[in-house]
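A favour between colleagues. Tell me how you read the following sequence-structure pair.

===
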Amino acid sequence: MTEHDERDTTTAVSVVISTPPGLEGIDPQLAHLLQRAQDYYSRGKAQATREAYQTDWQDFTDWCATHHLTPLPAAPATVAIYLTASIERGQKVNTLARRLAAISHAHQAMGYATPTTSEIVRAVLIGIRRTHGKAPRGAGALMTEEIRRIIAALPDTPMGLRDKAFILLGFAGAFRRSELIAMNVEDLHERHEGLVVLLRRSKTDQEGRGRLVGIPFGQHEQTSPVRAYAPG
């Protein structure tokens, strides 16, 4: 690896984390706008995503340094061999896909064509998936009868009534746990037909546009999410 390559690698790591490239030596009057641009750039991806990119990019650059290969811009063959080495040392297939995303992001941020879309890298990843991939095993969904047993076991206390409302709302709206936790009282609006819930942000809505979800009355009063939220 040359001195130029080392500088590029350091800059790429910085870009992946927060710093937009090509904004050095600007007019002092634009300093405030530069700071705001850096803020917006850093918020372009979730904090967890930025931290994962940093870790994944570091793994790739460390591997390249060990084998005297150039990480930026990386040759498609370098990425293909890296994927092979990673799966052979026990990395999970999903981890490799995430690391490819970090490698691609670093290259694009520095103005390089990403090697991750090349035919050799795509073919190697497909081969790895076919050889080492496993069918996803999600947690089984709760059924109506199980929900009824859970509700019946809750105590008739303020905390028990709160938990009942959360469980029935989550079941009726198919909400994620993170969506339920983020709800505020002002996000729930009573209507003649039931409730309208405003989801301000969710896993599938990282930009926070928000969406409205209608919750109708249940057939049975004891398991009605609307009655649980607004009894009487």
User: Anything to note?
Assistant: DSSP finds ten helices and three strands in the chain. Residues 3-132 form a domain with the DNA polymerase; domain 1 fold (CATH 1.10.150.130). Strands lie at 188-191, 194-199, 211-216.
